[in-house]
Design brief:
This protein is mostly helical. The chain has helices spanning 2-20, 24-55, 67-72, 75-129, 141-178, 186-244, 249-265, 269-279, 283-293, 296-325, 329-361, 364-388, 394-412, 414-423, 428-460, 465-501.
């Protein structure tokens, strides 16, 4: 009896220890999840600050109706430039050091921009006190105003670019770890990580306007840079765990480079130069090969393009109506913070409670097909409302807000989940290149291209801009529906193809 009792205790302790401990892949995921949650906390602080500065009476978009879409039009060129520089860093230093360098660079940029705004504000106050002496000064009132508007515009553009650049690096590592389905349960871990990220964004968006009352909007940028730097600690921990246990993306890249180097040695000098130039080429050149090998990436690109175009259209409509509804900068900033806090909270509830149940009962293709249907209904109702009632009516603001709210909730929850699952059947390089191109170029071009068109429309048809934008939103909703339907079929085909190959 004593022996049986001891053996039973030992088995219980062993079982509890095995359940309490995580395998190396799961520990790496937890570390990277902490890094991504800190990133989203930092991003919400940046977004609250940049939106408040941009929409203020003295900001870049304070007077012109087309300032917001005009600024968004510069997002795509800036995103392509950042992607090009990122590809150069990656080919020279590898994914781990590249992530470290980009985190530090982004944090430094926020500190520098905040310092410039503070410095220009002090010069502006000095010019007001010494008005007569500042007329012929190098930094006169007009020059300071232009520099301040340009700096705020750069803050807004950079805020719409840098998050995709960092998030794609975080999720490239997460996708690489999740590709080993024997060690990691994707259906279990991805909703948890997405829910934690949504919770961090909710808390940040909720406290942002209160923190701005103590530190100011420039102080929020400095706080965001501190939280961004803390991401590096946990990202390094995740990479250290993966290197120690042999599943790091760097190990795979090193093995691939060694294999390519052996191939180059066996060829002639001329062929060696051509191969070397191909390997060290930028990420856009590599994308051409990967997209041809996996056509599902093209469908993902088209879906991303249509979705971001719709999101940009509704963003402009919502932003324009908010300026009329909340003329005061502080009240508008508080409302925007509460709005994005509600978005993040709703996304977290979907991630934790709804999506795990939905994915067990339905295939992922039905999520792709159901999301655009909601926007098709809402935008169609918006068109009817704009035709019957005035642009400034309360019902119009509610419908635009509800449509934009639905888009952002989907972007942070359901669409984020199914998009990441679409990359899992691919190999590491295809996941990495596809995620970078779709995340940076697809998102940036969808926002910038549509924003440039909106800027032209609002500057030409100021009195009828809302009617035109509502109709275009409805058209883009049905376009997103068509792209999502084609993508869902392509993902099913890719999964079946991967199963046959394995």
């Amino acid at each position: 009896r004593e022996r049986s009792r001891l053996s039973l205790q030992e088995s219980c302790v062993t079982t509890m220890g095995n359940n309490a401990r995580f395998n190396p892949e799961e520990r790496a995921l937890i570390s990277m999840c902490v890094a991504t949650s800190l990133h989203y906390y930092s991003y919400e602080l940046v977004r609250s600050s940049s939106m408040a500065l941009f929409s203020s009476s003295k900001g870049f978009g304070g007077a012109l109706s087309y300032a917001f879409p005009l600024a968004m039009a510069f997002v795509c060129p800036a995103s392509v430039l950042m992607l090009f520089l990122y590809g150069k860093l990656l080919s020279s230093f590898g994914p781990r050091k590249t992530l470290q360098m980009t985190i530090r660079l982004c944090s430094l940029i926020w500190v520098v921009l905040a310092s410039i705004i503070v410095l220009l504000g002090r010069i502006e106050q000095r010019n007001i006190v010494h008005d007569d002496e500042s007329q012929n000064a190098v930094f006169g009132s007009y020059t300071v105003m232009l520099l301040k508007k340009a700096t705020i515009g750069f803050i807004f553009i950079f805020q719409n670019c840098y998050s995709n650049l960092l998030c794609t690096q975080y999720y490239s590592f997460i996708g690489s770890v999740m590709s080993n389905r024997q060690k990691v349960d994707c259906d279990k871990w991805y909703p948890i990580m997405s829910g934690v990220n949504a919770l961090a964004a909710t808390v940040s968006a909720t406290v942002a306007h209160r923190a701005a009352a103590y530190f100011g909007f420039t102080g929020l940028l400095i706080l965001a840079s501190i939280f961004a730097l803390s991401c590096e600690i946990f990202a390094n921990l995740a990479y250290s765990i993966s290197i120690k246990h042999g599943f790091s993306p760097e190990i795979r890249i090193t093995k691939k480079k060694e294999k390519e180097a052996n191939i180059m040695k066996s060829e002639s000098v001329c062929q060696n130069d051509e191969t070397n130039s191909e390997i060290n080429s930028n990420i856009l050149h590599r994308a051409k090969k990967v997209f041809a090998q996996f056509p599902v990436l093209w469908y993902l690109f088209y879906e991303t393009l249509s979705f971001q175009s719709l999101s940009s259209m509704l963003n402009v409509c919502f932003f324009t109506k908010l300026k009329f509804a909340f003329p005061d900068d502080v009240l508008r900033s508080a409302y925007i913070g509460k709005f994005y806090g509600a978005v993040s909270a709703s996304a977290g509830i979907l991630q934790f409670a709804v999506l795990p149940i939905f994915t067990k009962r339905f295939e992922l293709k039905w999520i792709w097909r159901s999301m655009p249907l909601i926007l098709c209904i809402l935008t169609f109702l918006l068109v009817i409302n704009q035709t019957i009632k005035d642009d400034t009516s309360l019902s119009s603001l509610i419908l635009v807000g509800l449509s934009f709210f639905s888009v952002k909730v989907m972007e942070y929850s359901a669409r984020s989940y199914v998009s990441e699952m679409a990359y899992v059947p691919l190999d590491f390089e295809s996941r990495f290149v596809g995620r970078e191109v779709n995340g940076v170029i697809g998102n940036g071009f969808g926002r910038s291209g549509m924003s440039l068109m909106i800027a032209g429309l609002t500057s030409s048809y100021v009195n009828a801009d809302q009617q035109i934008l509502s109709v275009l939103s409805c058209v883009l909703s049905f376009t997103w529906l068509a792209c999502s339907y084609q993508l869902s079929n392509a993902i099913v085909h890719q999964i079946n193809r991967t199963k046959k190959e394995t």
